[in-house]
Structures are given as structure tokens and as C-alpha cells.
Amino acid sequence: MTVRDAAAARTAAVQGSAARHLELDDDYFARQPTRSSELPDPEPLLRNLTHCVLESLAGARDLEQLARWVTDDVYRALSKRVVLAARARRVKGQQAQRPTFAIGRVHLHEPAEGVVEAVVLVHQRARSRAVAIRLEGFDRRWRASAVSVL
After folding, report:
1. Helices in 30-139 by DSSP H: which ranges?
2. Rounded Cα gap, residues 39 and 31, in angstroms
3. What is the pLDDT of residue 18?
């Protein structure tokens, strides 16, 4: 066995033990589910998140401001919609404008411990819309794991 082979074997052994160590500690460092009783009232977050999502889609707010409150999958999906909306505005020759709307009723349902599913009604001049949001409690705070603007 050469010196290079011995060094490669030690590196593989160290990386293997580190990988096993990380697998054991992964549960400790992963997101920790939180019970509903340990979380704040979700309604203000639902109202604010709805407001921010609609402004982001209209081009009046930067989507990065929502990153803290949504999961990675939701952020990617919203990012695609924001890009498509910006492209549609550019084709029509329109400027991004802050939308005018009023947040209506919030309908909440708790299907499981630490999970809230809600529909937030949004009233605009010409029509009303609904925004469906699923919040999950992790690390003592709510995060949106699904957002759908209907």
C-alpha cells in the first residue's frame, strides 16, 4: 500500500464516520414540529401573508421578503408565478402597480396538531378572490407549506 492509498483510506474512514455522526444528529438539527398551543394566533400571519403574496404577484413587493415565512417549495412556486406575471405585464406594456384590495374573512380549519389550513377572501373592485394557505408549526413559529391564489 502506498502513502497515497493510505491517505485515501483514512479520508474515506473519517468521511464515513462523520456521515454516520451527522445521520444520528440530523433529528436534533432538523426542524422541530411545534404544538398549536405553543404557537401564536395564525390569523394575523394569514392576513399579512395574503397581502404580501398579492403585492408580490402584482410586482409591487420583492418576493424575497416572504422567504422567511414560506417553505422552499412555496417560494419556488411563487417565484415562477411572479416571473410569469412580470412577463405578461411587459408584453402588455404595463407598469407594476400596488394593487387595491381589502382582506375579507379568514376561514380557519385545524386538520392536525400544529397544522392550520385557511382560506382568506380578498375583495377587489371588479372581483373577489380566495387565497388558500396551509401553515405548519415548526421551531415555535408558523411557516406556509402551501399557498394558492384562486
Report:
1. 42-58, 72-92
2. 15
3. 47
